[in-house]
Design a protein that fits this description.
five-stranded parallel beta sheet; alpha/beta; about 270 residues; 8 helices; about 25% helix; five-stranded mixed beta sheet
Length: about 270
């Protein structure tokens, strides 16, 4: 039998992959975090599937549930919110399964940052404005961050910054990020992306905390800091992708990335 780590996506059941739905229907056991996975997603399970909510279990208890199901000859789906490649404790769980000789595999899901960008209707990479997306978090009541990955260090890149697990500290984070991005940098907070209770708040680093704090958001929210958020309406952002330029294959045509833009260093 196999333990299937499956990305549950950001919340909407119709954003599950076809593979994820197939695995949910066929598995005899579904292990999920009730804090993040709702009834619509769980409804994809087969009628006889045993459900195990992990929101009050530690890692050892979760591993025990996986091992017991395997010992009973049952296939298990371990649902991870968003995509298993981000903040899912996949490494810790699979390390324990490897030690026990239990086979496992991974099915990706739609990550929260992608669902948030979709809710905002934005592209996080805009030609000549920002071409790097940084997915990170900050330390509060959680494991420590590597020294080289402090918020100041990652913000210095200047790319589109996506902060997970930081919504309760948004005022302090916004103040810290203003040093790198400027207080007028656009910010968006998206909570419960793709779900009926989705919340979208737009602002700038100098006012986003005032807009967000009264809402009392505690979970499943991402903070996106980027000049790309307003690129569609910003007259200064006039560069377009060289990939889709009709003249890109003509002799003598220079790629936009090689041309200086007014007001910016060449």
């Amino acid at each position: 039998m196999t333990v299937h780590f499956v990305g549950a996506g950001p919340g909407a059941a119709d954003l599950l992959t076809v593979r994820a739905v197939t695995l949910l229907r066929e598995a005899q056991v579904c292990v999920f975090a009730g804090t993040y996975v709702d009834d619509a997603v769980l409804a994809m399970c087969g009628p006889g599937t045993r459900r195990v909510d992990t929101q009050h279990l530690d890692l050892d208890a979760i591993t025990t549930a996986l091992l017991e199901a395997h010992a009973a000859g049952l296939d298990v789906v371990r649902l991870c919110s968003g995509d298993p490649s981000l903040y899912s404790a996949l490494t810790e769980q699979t390390r324990r399964l490897d030690t026990a000789g239990v086979p496992w595999d991974v099915t990706p899901g739609v990550p929260a940052y992608a669902a948030a960008a979709a809710a905002l209707g934005v592209e996080l990479t805009v030609p000549e404005l920002v071409q790097t997306v940084v997915l990170t978090r900050t330390q509060a009541r959680s494991t420590s961050m590597p020294e080289a990955e402090s918020l100041g260090s990652t913000a210095a890149i200047g790319g589109s910054l996506v902060l997970h697990l930081g919504i309760t500290r948004i005022r302090a984070l916004a103040a810290e990020l203003a040093d790198a991005y400027g207080p007028d940098c656009p910010v968006a907070v998206v909570a419960f992306a793709s779900q009926p209770r989705e919340v979208v708040v737009r602002g700038r680093l100098d006012d986003i905390a005032d807009r967000v704090e009264p809402l009392g958001l505690r979970h499943t929210a991402v903070i996106i800091v980027s000049r790309a958020l307003t690129a569609r309406s910003d007259a200064a952002c006039v560069a377009e992708s060289h990939l889709y330029d009709a003249a890109r294959d003509r002799p003598g045509v220079t790629a936009p990335s090689d041309v200086s833009r007014p007001g910016r260093p060449g």
